[in-house]
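Weekly puzzle thread! Below is a chain. First person to post its structure in token form gets bragging rights.
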Amino acid sequence: MVFLLALFSVTGALVLSMAGLTQSASSLLAANRAVAKQQAFHLAEAGLDDGLRELTVGGSDFDGWDDGAGGPCVTACEKAATLPTGTYEVRIADITVTTLEIVSAGSVSTALGAPSQADAHVEAFVELDGTAPFQQAVCGDTEVRVEHPGTLVDSYDSGTGPYDIVTNRTWNGHVRTNSTADDTVRIENVSIYGDLIVGQGATPPEDVVDDRGGNLVTGTVYAAPANLPLDPIEIPPGLPHSGDLTSSQVLPAGLLRYGVCSASSGVVITTGGDVTLYCDTLTVDGGDLRGRAAGADHPPSLIVNVLGTSEVEVRGGSTFVGAIYAPNTPRVRIRGGAVVFGAAVSGQELRVEEGAQVHFDEALKSSTLGTAETSLQSWRSWGQN
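Winning reply:
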């Protein structure tokens, strides 16, 4: 009897001990998973911060980012990173011209028990406050002229590949002015695959257009619901002046400040990533000035802000790949058989003439000038396992 009592006592103690061990193990696993969840959340936040940093540093080349398939970023950009505590994957995607979605996922491997991984996600919608003036192929604030046989304005999307007249041409090569005065958009013997957009409130809008005949215009004439804002150029504080840009070279990614920017015959200037130039003057006269990414022409990789008040010219025999923003110039002229893949905006008059071609890249619609600012519209987290 005593033996049985002793046996029951030992058995009871063992059961209680095992229960205690089980409870301790469960507590340990729960604590481990709780720590991993918190770490995963912090990693997701780190990915979000990474995305915001790239958006707010103008001219960033998004080093280490791609479109998710190894190509250049166009309408979406992705990055994966490994930190001592785990990993994060972040994706930035265009929602509208100035609204972007950032989704970041953090992941941590747990040391004990199932599940073997803790995940957390954060999502933010941000509004870009920087100016996005490249909503059309060409815009002259006060006057536009598109003239002479062989002159062409059309569009394409570099996100789907290079320009091709058969496989990658769209009809959004719009020609625009903020003017409401009669006959301030002159067209003659040209092809325009897009609309003619005139100043807000023009009535009737057709009176703004001086159609001199021989034209192919696939779109319509209408007054814009709001004029295109031509904000002044702001040079980032402390940006060093690098002299003149006149010789063949590959420009490093980032913000660059020059005096004379010129590509004469035989000069080839390309970018090694996303570049924003601040130039006193701009002339492309027989040479090439090309924005490039992943070894291919990419207009959003080159934004040229022209600071001065002299005429901007892209002349015959030249190729320009990028976007020109010249709010202070009296005239931007694209002429003499020059070819532009991108867009151009002039503070006064803009001319496309003498057989020149402008192929508007619709990927430029989300491009802003220089350093952008962001404002957070909404934020949420979910999916913590």
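Puzzle host: Confirmed. Bonus trivia for everyone else. Residues 2-8, 10-19 have pLDDT under 50 and may be disordered.
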